[in-house]
Amino acid sequence: MDARTRILVVDDEESVRRGYTRLLGELDCDTQAAGDGEQALHAMERHPADAVLLDLRMPGAGGLEVLEALKRRWPECEVVVITGYPTVESAKRALQLGAFGYLAKPADPDEVIDAARGALRRKKWALRAEPAAA
Questions:
Q1: Are 107 and 82 in contact (CB under 8 A)?
Q2: How far apart are CA 48 and CA 65, in angstroms?
Q3: pLDDT (tens digit, 0 to 9) for every residue of the chain, 134 residues total?
Q4: How far is CA 1 from the centre of its chain?
Q5: Torsion over CA of 21, 119, 52 and 110, rounded to 10 degrees?
Q6: CA spacing 20 to 30 A to 52: which of 8, 40, 68, 133?
Q7: Interior CA angle at 109 toward 20 and 30, to 5°?
Q8: Distant-in-sequence, close-in-space partners of 87: CB < 8 Å, separation ≥ 6
Q9: What gap in Å lies between CA 39 and CA 62, rounded to an integer?
Q10: Where are the beta strands (DSSP E) in the chain?
């Protein structure tokens, strides 16, 4: 990953945001953080991210609602849902809405790195597959 790669970490727990931001910063990523869905959408408007690590349960708009808004407005952005309350139903719904991946907390640091790398790789290949505009 290079310094131009942007990842947005969205979680209502400050310690989780700091931990993921620090972890991804070690990969030379430009990381941003948001404490809820509204902050995440504002951050995306200012500086669209290549990938988003998104918590499901947050005050205000829930993660699935935010995921839907992200994919509608920034369809090329890849989203990895990371939740402390994993269910088969929420995993299926997240994938139906276009999430790249779904992890249960506490996620191992290697899992988080692998998921972020996978999401960025998918975006890279999707952009290569798009036909050039005439």
A1: yes
A2: 18
A3: 444 789 999 999 999 999 999 999 877 789 999 999 999 999 999 999 999 999 999 988 889 999 999 999 999 999 999 999 999 999 999 999 999 999 999 999 999 999 999 999 988 776 665 555 44
A4: 15
A5: -30
A6: 133
A7: 35
A8: none
A9: 12
A10: 6-10, 30-34, 51-54, 78-83, 101-104
Q: What is the pTM of this model?
A: 0.88
Lookup: tokens for 22: 């620090």
pLDDT the model gives residue 31 = 93
- d(CA 111, CA 104) in angstroms, rounded, equals 10
- In 3D space, the residue among 79, 81, 86, 120 whose CA is nearest the CA of residue 102 turns out to be 81
Give the dihedral of Cα atoms 97, 99, 103, 109; nearest 10 deg. -160
Can you tell me the distance from the alpha carbon of 36 to that of 41, in angstroms, rounded to the nearest whole number? 9
Q: What does each C-alpha distance from 87 to 91, 94, 102, 104 come to in angstroms? A: 6, 11, 10, 9
Alpha-carbon distance of 68 to 38, in angstroms, equals 13
